[in-house]
Amino acid sequence: MHDDIDWEQHISRIPRWDDAFKISLRLLCGEHAPPWTAHVGDRRTDEDESFVNDFGLTLRQPWERVDGVPEHIRDWVRKRCRDTAWFRENLVDKNLSDWENLPMMSREDLSLRLARVIPETADLSRLIVNPTTGTTGSPLPCPNHPRAIGCYDAIFEYVMELWGIPLRLEPGLTLAVQVCYQASTLTYATCHSRHKGAGFAKVNIHPSVWPTDEVRAWLNRVRPQILTGDPWSFDRMIRLGLRPQPRALLSTSLTLEEEQLHRWEDWFGCPVIDLYSMNETGPLGVTLPGNPGVFHQLARDLYLEASADGELLVSGGRNPYLPLFRYRTGDRITFVPGTGGRPAWRLISGRTLTVWQKADGSETQPLEIARILRSYREVINYQVYEARPHLLRIWLEAPAMLPEVRQELAERLASFWEGNLSAGSVGRQVSYPPPKGHVRIEWE
User: Fold this and answer.
1) Mean pLDDT score, 321-334
2) DSSP secondary structure letters along 146-197
3) Cβ(348)–Cβ(338) under 8 Å?
4) Residue 136: which of 279, 272, 234 has the closest Cα?
């Protein structure tokens, strides 16, 4: 039982703290609790909360059809041209009326030129850096602000309202648990001042981290109202025989197949809500009851469009540190009629779940490889693919990586792929960088 809660760590991260919140944290950190690896708080002031309240009101306003780019988005772009290097360099001499031919921002801009994207006028004193997990690609450093993160809460509340799912917000109850299944990841217990101290936790249910019997006992005790996670994690819950009874499942990050949706509904006995969201953009759209596979836009401070080849592009946003312009999501969509005048779309090709089978027969995600690669600062970019069953090939762009460091990386990757086998017993080939600074590492 975790009776050594460091209250100062929690109180210092929740400016609107109330001692009644301790009930929720004692519940989450009590018997059968997992090993926590981080302390997290909402860092939200009264002024931030006022902003989030106003944002929540805009979500509920009726939608009006606008042909083309809304004027408030054009005004926002003009402001960014005055205080943001990327906008000046790419847009200052361009005609905004020729929108479809304007440059597009990409993941490469965020990973290699992030300083050019952050406005020079931004107050960095409240900066929070939240690297993407790399679930669907290479990780990105995503700067964020407590106020923008707080808007997730307003969207969460609105989504539950759209689905007719009541929430109990009070100390001593668990609002939501985010479920992960990874070799390692950040885990934490916290509570949100906006939700009157109701508990929230991020947990890792991988058996090597938290015994399944302990997971089951903890879930039965804390009784989360909502479970959030990605398809990989929910499928692993079923495999492990974990069957809590939440009011809803909120699936994020990856394309949700209809077969998965029905399987989860049967297993967990609750509605499954598909939220289209990216760490760079925040939540963009959500499915509605009786209309699976169709995402309806949530907030008006973002302009969504499709490129000539159908790629979803995003402009605008509420994150003061990450203004996006025609940001390439990598997903192909087609716009369809939405409910209540909302823009809506279907995915043609989206971020799907990739699972590799290791040589020992166990399964893993690209995320686990990404976690190893991103621990080396010299790695600028990489591509990982399965050349054939049990043969994984990685191309690295790491021109500053010393040969001995490259060898160490290869041994770490090979050791992970083979489970408990030592790296020395694994056949491995490392070739030195070709002209563009890439190195090939492959093993089986």
Assistant:
1) 94
2) HHHHHHHHHHHHHHHHHTT-----STTSEEEEEEE-SSS---EEEE-GGGTT
3) no
4) 279
Question: 113-167: per-residue pLDDT in tens?
Answer: 999 999 999 999 999 986 554 444 455 678 999 999 999 999 999 999 999 999 9
10 Å CB burial of residue 4 (0-12, 13-18, 19+) is exposed
From residue 425, give the alpha-carbon distance in Å to each of 171, 257, 422.
53, 39, 6
* Strands 199-204, 174-180: pairing kind: parallel
Burial zone of 85 (CB within 10 Å; 0-12 exposed, 13-18 middle, 19+ buried): middle
Enter the tokens of residue 122.
């931004």
Average pLDDT, the chain: 85
Name which of 228-237, 268-277, 419-428 the model is least confident about. Answer: 419-428
pTM: 0.81
CA distance 102 to 95: 8
- Which tokens belong to 162? 């759209």
**Tokens for 113?**
């030129």
Token pair of 129, please?
Answer: 């850096």
Cβ atoms of 362 and 316 closer than 8 Å: no
What is the Cα–Cα distance from 313 to 113, expressed in whole angstroms? 19
297 closest CA partner among 317, 308, 310, 283: 283
